[in-house]
Design brief:
Chain lengths: 164, 608
């Protein structure tokens, strides 16, 4: 039986992190796990590297005592996004790292972090051409068929252009 | 597979990111990156199409036809949830009627449609809309004159899922219509009937039996005190704006409507006896989050303070807007806010006119209401001392500040700019200030998104400070840039996110500045300037001459608008022209629209 005040998370390579459960009260995944499988020793967080998980836990620690209402939907337009100086670390982050944080936030279901990282990523995409966006996300990682399908996409994209 | 590429394989992550893209052209770029990007971006792109160009409206409609969809795996018409064609239909082109009637029934998932000021919307078109769009939740029908009361009564109740209805200024909105929708639209949660003089308390008293959360009653017909009390007895109301005429006073807002109080006797009751009588009603108003009141001449401060006591004590009231009746206020009103409304986040004080103790009273409010983030001070007798209180008490947490027609100086406003580093919106109008406060923007690294500043002239230093100090600006309103040296105008290109630029004075700048602004500002959507009389001579002929390059960003004149500031300039004769230079033909108009991918509105007016 694990300590109920703390929770241990295991990353993809087996690295473990033990933090107070209260830090992760905004993570729906962790809360669900605590309710259903809280008696187990550790929770596995697949697809998340130790570096990224450390960053996520830092975010959770910084915001552990926030009194704002939990965000139900990261894209809720009625909740305007306001930059928090405590989150400046995410603004200077390389694109691929930021994307991994977005994924980790999505996996752990932390809406506040999803919104923060998605908003930052969107602001970097804003105003860029398709080629510049490809370069952001490392073209080597895009399947060849994706790159070759530009023309086809272009036709459909033009269709989308009517909505401008 | 790397973590990055793995992340890109998860559609929800891309969807989350694309949701925050600020405009559709950026979404369009994303559709061209890869298959995954395309799949994630297309539904968002089609979710809320904004169609400004007449020729695109017909293309849009044809793309929705079932015959077109047969050639694609994607059913674009099911992606459309909100349709914004208001700008298009305001052009009053007769050929849009058929398109509108054809287009709307093709959108089964349409949840929100803006049909404001739509002269082509008739009873028949409304009936078709009601038949074809059963999922509609939000409907704007403001200022539509082609609809009849009977037509509205026949159609609108058929929107069974309607939750928000705006019918401001609709001449067909009557008591009969209101009674009808209250009886049939059981899911209705927000209603705005501003300016509907034919709606009176006779029908609005039925609000009590509805589930409304938001109600805007401004300039509607007469109501009695009992009817106001009945409206306020609605247990679900969270937001109320009241500017109504009739024989009632503030007690009607908090009294129990049954049994109806005797108006003569009520003024004789002591405060303590009223407290007993109203206790049951107070419990039903604990949900009130926003209250906007335009106080009548006869409103007494003691009544207002008692009202604040009742409503503020629940800590639910977070948004208070008081349009006071000058010039009889003491600090009792302000002290009432400080004493009772501790949960306030937004406060708007208009026409508070007292003595110099007002600044200290404002300080007490800010100290007591420790959550205030949005503050509007309009036509009030606060001075620099009030701004000092703002800076010292809530400088760090303030997000929006509006100062209109207040006796402040350059030093006071400059201190606000310098020390309120969290400000996202600043409005300074009708104050006797120069551009000195603007010069502080560059040094403080502002994250401001909206800036509206009125002063006689903006010099080079202030211009540079605005352009380089506020890179996040989305809305900029300056009265004039005539004094800015031409060689520094290009600095505005720093404002990559600017969507709206309003500038009333361009001085002797040539009309080419409009072309340059469109090029320098990649996110620009609305450009509103005062037309120089000099341009009249040749601008129209030049546009019609065919010398305008096909893809050259240039200008258009659509939707001439009265500007609020012009309306307030009493005694000045204002001339509005129906068309820029009177000579822009439809061909040129469409060509220039095509040339400007984002800049869609350029309003011009003459002022003599």
């Amino acid at each position: 039986m694990s300590d109920p005040a703390n929770i241990t998370l295991v990353t993809m390579d087996g690295t473990t992190f033990t933090v107070p459960s209260a830090y992760l009260h905004r993570s729906k995944l962790v809360q669900d796990w605590l309710r259903s499988e809280g008696d187990k020793q550790a929770m596995e967080v697949k697809h998340v590297t130790p570096f990224v998980l450390q960053g996520v836990l830092n975010f959770c620690e910084i915001h552990a005592e926030d009194t704002s209402e939990p965000l139900a939907d990261p894209a809720d337009p009625t909740k305007p996004f306001e930059a928090d100086p405590r989150d400046d670390a995410f603004r200077g982050m390389p694109d691929d790292q930021l994307l991994q944080f977005t994924m980790a936030a999505d996996i752990l279901q932390i809406p506040e972090l999803v919104r923060l990282t998605a908003q930052e990523m969107a602001s970097r995409i804003d105003g860029k051409s398709p080629d510049q966006i490809r370069a952001m996300f490392n073209p080597d990682d895009l399947a060849e068929e994706d790159v070759d399908s530009d023309n086809e996409m272009g036709e459909v994209g033009e269709e989308g252009a009517i909505s401008k | 597979m790397t973590s990055t590429s793995h992340a890109l394989e998860i559609p929800l992550i891309l969807t989350n990111i694309f949701t925050y893209l600020s405009c559709q052209s950026h979404l369009l770029s994303c559709t061209l990156v890869s298959r995954n990007f395309f799949s994630a971006a297309i539904p968002i792109l089609w979710r809320r199409p904004r169609i400004y160009k007449p020729r695109f409206f017909s293309a849009f409609t044809s793309a929705l036809q079932p015959s077109t969809n047969a050639h694609t795996l994607r059913s674009y018409r099911t992606y459309v949830h909100e349709l914004d064609v208001a700008y298009l239909i305001r052009q009053r082109r007769s050929d849009q009627h058929a398109l509108l009637v054809t287009c709307l029934p093709l959108l089964p998932n349409l949840a929100s449609v803006d049909l404001r000021d739509c002269s082509i919307l008739t009873d028949d078109a409304l009936a078709i809309l009601a038949e074809a769009c059963p999922h509609l939740k939000t409907l704007w029908l403001n200022i539509n004159t082609a609809i009849t009361t009977q037509g509205a009564i026949d159609s609108i109740p058929r929107f069974a899922k309607l939750r928000t209805l705006h019918v401001d200024g609709a001449p067909w909105c009557t008591d009969e219509f209101i009674e009808c929708i209250f009886g049939s639209c059981r899911l209705l949660r927000a209603l705005n009937i501003t300016g509907c003089r034919r709606v009176t308390g006779d029908s609005l008293r039925l609000v009590r039996s509805t589930q409304l959360r938001s109600l805007v009653l401004r300039q509607v017909g007469c109501m009695t005190r009992e009817q106001v009390a009945e409206i306020m007895a609605c247990r679900t109301l969270e937001e109320v704006e009241l500017v109504v005429e009739g024989d009632w006073d503030l007690w009607a807002l908090i009294e129990d409507p049954s049994p109806p109080p005797e108006s003569d006797a009520i003024s004789e009751l002591s405060d303590s006896s009223l407290r007993v009588r109203t206790i049951s009603a107070v419990s039903s108003r604990r949900t009130l989050r926003k209250l906007s009141l335009n106080l009548a001449k006869g409103a007494r401060e003691s009544s207002l303070v008692a009202l604040l006591d009742r409503l503020g004590s629940s800590d639910a009231l977070v948004d208070l807007n008081l349009h006071l009746w000058r010039p009889s206020e003491t600090t009792a009103t302000l002290d009432g806010i400080a004493s009772h409304c501790h949960a306030l986040r937004r406060l708007r004080l208009e026409r508070w006119d007292g003595d110099c103790t007002g600044n200290e009273a404002l300080r007490r409010i800010l100290e007591s209401c420790s959550k205030i983030e949005v503050l509007h001070l309009c036509e009030s007798s606060f001075t620099d001392g009030g701004l000092e209180a703002v800076v010292e008490v809530c400088g760090g947490r303030l997000r929006e500040l509006t100062i209109e027609d207040v006796l402040v100086t350059d030093a006071g406003v400059a201190r606000v700019v310098r020390e309120c580093t969290g400000l996202r919106a600043l409005v300074v109008k009708y104050c006797q200030v120069t551009d000195a406060p603007l010069r502080e923007l560059k040094a403080c690294g502002s994250g401001m998104k909206r800036l509206s500043f009125e002063c006689e002239s903006v010099g080079e230093e202030a211009w540079r400070s605005v352009c380089e100090g506020c890179p996040q600006l989305e809305f900029l309103e300056l009265w004039t840039i005539a004094e800015v040296p031409k060689e520094h105008l290009h600095l505005i290109a720093h404002l990559r996110h600017l969507e709206t630029l309003i500038c009333y004075g361009l001085g002797a700048l040539p009309e080419a500045i409009l072309l340059l602004l469109a090029r320098w500002l990649p996110s620009l959507r609305d450009l509103i300037v005062q037309k120089s009389t000099r341009w009249d001579e040749w601008l129209g002929p030049w546009l019609n001459s065919g010398e305008v390059q096909r893809h050259q960003p240039t200008m258009l004149s659509i939707g001439l608008q009265y500007q609020e500031w012009v309306r307030r300039e009493e005694g000045i004769h204002v001339e509005f022209e129906g068309n820029i230079a009177g000579g822009v033909g439809p061909y040129v108009r469409e060509e220039v629209i095509r040339g400007m991918p984002l800049c869609t509105v350029l309003s011009m007016y003459s002022r003599s």
